[in-house]
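Need tokens for this chain, all 394 residues.
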Amino acid sequence: MTKHEKYFGYKQGHRFRKKPEKRISVAVVVPKYGLMGGAENFVYELTERVAQFKGVDVHLFANKWQNGGDAVTFHKIWTISFPRFLEPISFAVGVWLKTRARYDIIHSHDRIFSMDIFTFHGIPHLTWIKKIRKKRWLKLVDMAIVWIEKKGLTNPRLKKVLPVSSIAEEEMRRIYSFPENVVEVLHPGISLEFFENHSKQAAIKKIRNRFNFSESDLILLFVGMNFEIKNLDLILEAMAQRNKKSRNSFKLLVVGKGNEAKYIRKAGKLGVLNQVVFAGATPFIQDFYLASDIFIMPSRYDTFGMVVLEAMLAGLPVIISENVGARDLIDNTNGFVLPHDATPLQVSEILCQLENPDLRHRMGENAYLSSMSCSWNAMAEKIYSLYLDFASEI
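Here are the structure tokens for all 394 residues:
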């Protein structure tokens, strides 16, 4: 009998024949829950599943939320939004006041003063401002975030830090020092039912008709909410480079929100405007994945990139940069990882390779198989096991 079974009683699958001797109370902290966004979706999918396990009482502390199942109890954290530097401070103070000495485990997905587990969805804020945003000076709000982050990550209560990728771990370790066993990379998961009730053939017909793509067009899919950081520039330049050698059959489908006018002008100057379609943002992304042939996102920086995992589940070979955390899942069998200084010519050569249908289909199948090991259920079991480990020491 394992210590988990001893603590909770005889285990059968993921349900227990008798009530646990003691229930674990868990406070999950995140500013926004269940709303559109990578981190918000991460917390929602994970928390809703963990809350279904017996022996765990999950309490969610947030400023805004979308209700999920009945197993989660919600608590409002009021914040002061103006001036801006008071928002992260008021959130951290509100969480501290409502959770101190009341819960067995505090699992935070945001920077607060005290927690047992911290899922790090980004990188240290100082690194983000200096290295990614290229800002010389910190604003008051940045100073507040850096201060709260340091308080939380140096608090002796902290037992586990879960960065979402090796990129996040590397950047975190540049600033903070942790024992080896405190840090463990835990990638985001994906619902294996994400494409349930969606037909690939129907999606192909729907999307190609909607955007006037021909049957011979190869659809290159880009999904992102910030065109500059996601490096849409490089993709347009690579398509123009490809056109220099031969008139290619690629059409770029851009899904997301960004400065469309700027990139329409750029596509026009590069002579690829007739190969690019801007579809805008949509919460119903499944048909776009299923109707496409290749996924590309050569971001200048992305801590993980949930859309990469979604594309893999759709059976698409992926092209990403080494600055995307999802690189942890990519090898030369299911996609391509570009160097951080990739040139349009390098990307163009990869596109040329993927015009081969056999290679494209083989890599797509391998991408699908890789994604199957990253289900939200598997991630939830890992978190649940972690809670049990902590509970056994209470």
